[in-house]
Write a structure and sequence with these properties.
With 64 residues, this protein is mainly beta. It contains no helices and four strands. It has a four-stranded antiparallel beta sheet, with no helix packed on it.
Amino acid sequence: MSLQIYDIAGKEIAVLAQGFKPPGFYRLTWDGKNSSGQPVPSGVYFYRLTVNAMVQTKEMTMVQ
């Protein structure tokens, strides 16, 4: 299982989760920072959730 954040250009900004997770309910919160700990600007971002063979990508808007 993995959950990544990408910018509008398709560059990976952050990885919120990676690795095996047993079945269950999970909640993750992105703090609006990149993988270096720097805040990202307001704008459109995408998150990609991958679980086994299922990949789901959705759009979100960051407003600061």
